[in-house]
Known about the structure:
single chain, alpha/beta, two-stranded antiparallel sheet, 10 helices, 10 strands, AB_hydrolase_1
Amino acid sequence: xxxxxxxADRHVERRWTSPDGLSLYxxxxxxxxxxxxxxxxAIHGLTRNSADFGVIAGLIAHSGRRVxxxxxxxxxxxxxxxxxxxxxxxVYAKDVVALMEQAGIEKAIFLGTSMGGLITLALTALKxxxxxAAILNDVGPEVAAEGLARIxxxxxxxxxxxxxxxxxxxxxxxxxxxxxxxxxxxxxAFARRIFREGTEGAPVLDYDPDIxxxxxxxxxxxxxxNLWPSFRALARKKPTLLVRGGTSDLLSSVIADKMRKAAPxxxxxxxxxxxxxxxxxxxxxxxxxxxxxxxxG
Length: 297
């Protein structure tokens, strides 16, 4: 079962301004006492938000590192972009650079789930010195078309939700294959992470439906990104950990093997019986993350 902990609530709200003037949001987890260590910047997946990192961010902060878990533009408590063509990894990466500049952070460890990993790879090209190390959660420089097609099929699509029971049923419907072990209570908690209460009282998905606009505009080209040069630059020069869901349809075992061959020094962990993407509260993921962080400044 997913892990819960009171540490998940120990954060303050942090806001920063994007280069084009949006007000963006992050959960800021203060580190426990001890030697100063590099902070962690956690970046979520396409339709998700900072709530996904509640457990792991709290645990990392308790171990002595500051954690900033962001809401990427158009998600959660961050502003929605007037121009939906700005919903792209390169723009998201520039937003993260702005966060670092405004927070006085020169270098950080990046923890990126799915799209968050792609943003990390974009940062490798944009500002490589900002990355001290990286944890890529179920994503790589190449992704399986099957998984991307599945995600594209529901992203930005209208859905009629009239109650939290409806929201829970929706969360289960689109994610059950990835988390077959979840209980009814787990799905209810999952719904609370991806929905918010709308102005009329009914739950609404906590992201701008227009985040799908660049994907639709790119068509089939969106399904075959080639980020191998960025991945090689990252994984060969900076400590890198790859976490894969054992049944992931986005990061296939074939792609993961290619990544490991391209970067033999990269650490690797697989979470059995979990699809895209591990929540990082699983024992295998937690163990790998803390072992990895122990070797980074």
